[in-house]
Amino acid sequence: xxxxxxxxxxxxxxxxxxxxxxxxxxxNRSRLSPQQSELGWSRAGGNGQTRRVFGVLIRIDSVTxxxxxxxxxxxxxSLEIPDRAITVLVGPSGCGKTTTLRMIxxxxxxxxxxxWIDGQDSRRQPVNTLRRSMGYVIQNAGLFQHRTIVDNIAxxxxxxGWSKDRARSRARELMERVGLDASLARRYPYQxxxxxxQRVGVARALAADPPVLLMDxxxxxxxxxxxxxxxxxxxxxxxxxxxxxxxxxxxxxxxxKLGTMVAVLRTGGRLAQYAPPADLLSNPxxxxxxxxxxxxxxxxxxxxxxxxxxxxxxxxxxxxxATAEQIARAAQGAPYLLVTGIDGKPLxxxxxxxxxxxxxxxxxxxxxxxxxVAGEDSLRSALDCAVLSPAGWxxxxxxEGRATGVISQxxxxxxxxxxxxxxxxxxxxxxxxxxxxxx
Amino acid sequence: xxxxxxxxxxxxxxxIGLVGLHLREALLPVLGGLLLALPIAQLCVRLRWLxxxxxxxxxxxxxxxxxxxxxxxxxxxxxxxxxxxxPLTVYTLVVLVPAIVDGVRSVPxxxxxxxxxxxxxxxxxxxxxxxxxxxxxxxxxxxxxxVSSISLVxxxxxxxxxxxxxxLLHDAQIYNRPELAWNSVLTTAALAVLVDALxxxxxxxxxxxxxxxxxATRTRKEATAR
Lengths: 439, 226
Fold this sequence. Notes:
The complex is a heterodimer of chains A (439) and B (226).
Chain A (H helix, E strand, L loop, with lengths): L3 H12 L5 H7 L6 H13 L9 E11 L5 E11 L3 E5 L6 H8 L7 E6 L2 E2 L5 H6 L1 E5 L10 H5 L1 H5 L4 H14 L16 H13 L5 E5 L7 H18 L2 E6 L2 H7 L2 E6 L3 E6 L1 H6 L4 H7 L3 H5 L15 E3 L4 H7 L6 E4 L5 E5 L21 E2 L5 H10 L4 E5 L5 E6 H14 L17
Parallel strand pairs in A: 3-8, 3-9, 6-7, 7-8, 11-12, 14-15
Antiparallel strand pairs in A: 1-2, 1-4, 4-5, 9-10, 12-13, 15-16
Chain B lengths: L14 H32 L4 H13 L2 H12 L3 H25 L3 H9 L4 H31 L14 H8 L3 H29 L6 H13 L1
Helix pairs in contact in B: 1-4, 1-6, 2-4, 3-4, 4-6, 5-6, 6-8, 7-8
């Protein structure tokens, strides 16, 4: 089961675009807009000279893992894991995702097939040398409870023969990078919260600056708020360091959020689909993947469209000290007006008739819900704002929180239709090989 | 009271000398037992099937009365301290082997997987990860073994002058001086309590990484508050 075709797409789309502003945008948690990503590809590939910034680092070549009792954990799996990107292995329990991960650093030896690391058979080099070149992060962090935080992080450099001082100063450097206070250096793991322990786990994996990072459900044992923080932190670190990350999770939302490429595995260790997350959401390969993605994949897919292109209206915005004439002009054709403060920040919605010129009673305004940032947020956020707003209109703000415009649910719906036309296949009807706008 | 520490000359030691002898005869077997138990336990951890038979053997050995050991050993090692210390060494295994095995096995799977993934070989992993984390369990075993050994040394009086403080019991009988029996019992008990406290101290020194008491709770709160 070779899927080099899909990987080719990944290279054109996700991977080579990683250095473009659009890709950066995505890795800053906002999603690629169609325009931006197209710009990215044409820059990378459109001028005739395909710039292969990144290649395939890990090639899993029809690998099978069969246990002595006959259980097949992984079944003829082939995957090409791109260099300097996050590849997520996702699937229900028993789909062999952890086994696959552990075969990469040979904690589990494949029964058949070969894993190529940077063009070399992984069995060629001594197993501990191989492992020291791959950072490993595990659920519950797996810290050495008998060592201080700084010594935990310094473990692999020490194994590689660094001096104690050098290893420790490197460890302190990494603590800063993963957002750990330097005062924690001499503490022991039991003195840290779960989230902090997981940060130590990430720092420890990065300590010897390995090109590859293997992450086995690293964030699944922490609470949702901490998990979101850790995910954002991982994306930030990845933006800075550009590691080849293989990430195992059972959480499809996490996969979609973090993955440059997502491999969906099904029970029995077979590959169901290997695609960039936006493709996965628009074009699930079969009923299993569709089911695994959940019921709201259409809404979720909107995260991949930028809200930057929305036609924002500024007319229905009035300042808190607006004159009767200004209010009357703004009220033409708009059922609700957004009242802003002197500083331009939104205060709330009001029907035009309820406004008194010169001094608006701010206590009587309707809440404006949660605004979206036009340049950064996705269509999903914009739609969410409109749905939450009592007026049915979403408020767009700039980076400083000043209102830049408003838009109705209807207008957002039109924009969504437009985005889907530009990126067909949301209904799952596109044939293979048809060009897709978003990857 | 003077007669309390007036040790009959047939014991060839004063009170302090008896205490020293007693400690040597009690602690050397524990040390020897630990040195034997470490590789045995490591084998039991690596080869799971070996553990039940090993446990069975140590239990049976523990059930053999020391007198029986003496009868066999006296032909080879004579009426010496060694004859007393060999059975005592064997007896410690019944506590130490399971203590080490359970301690090593209690190391969390994630920690082991992380160590393996970071490129620890089996030996390095055992010495640098499993044993240190098993330290509290091992020390707990050592405490039981030591206290039991301190009380068992007394049986050395069965082969003559090798029971250290235990010989005071014998002398109390033949010289009709009950205070010597009190001396024997109280000194032995005091030694056991002291050595046990010392081991607790050693454990605290060796495991600064263990959560303990209110201090730990306070630091944890501080950590979460960040």
